[in-house]
Amino acid sequence: MIVEYIRYRLPEADSAGFERDYASAATHLAASSYCLGYELTRCIEEAGVYILRIRWTSANDHMQGFRHSPQFPPFLAAIRPYVSRIEEMRHYEVTAVASEAV
User: Per residue in 30-70, pLDDT tens?
Assistant: First the structure.
């Protein structure tokens, strides 16, 4: 398993639409056998900053499996207006330093 983090920075006025569009996009993540879970969080100090955390079966499954699956085109269509607002999009390995509550 790997974790993908995507950080967005957008005008606070776009927040409601962003969350609505991501709720729609999330249905396509949930339908993917490669996606083990996801979470969209909003910064409390800076309301237009979000981090999307997606757990994937592997980086290859994300990049080759999901991106070539029937779920990807509608997922991308739902979030396309925000792609230019991405500040970081990377895959991370989980380390042994963790809590069960994560």
Answer: 999 999 999 999 999 998 999 999 999 999 999 999 999 99
- Structure tokens belonging to residue 42: 């909003």
Which residues, listed in sequence order, are joined to residue 4 by a DSSP beta bridge?
54, 91
- For residue range 68-102, list pLDDT tens digits in order: 999 999 999 999 999 999 999 999 999 999 887 65
In the chain the domains, ranked by start, together with CATH numbers, are: 2-93 (3.30.70.100)
Count of other CB atoms within 10 angstroms of residue 29: 20
The stretches of 1-102 forming alpha helices (DSSP H) are 15-30, 59-60, 72-79
How distant is the alpha carbon of residue 71 from its chain centre? 14
The residue assigned the tokens 């085109």 is 73
- In three-state secondary structure terms, 76 is helix
Q: What are the residues facing 2 on neighbouring strands? A: 56, 93
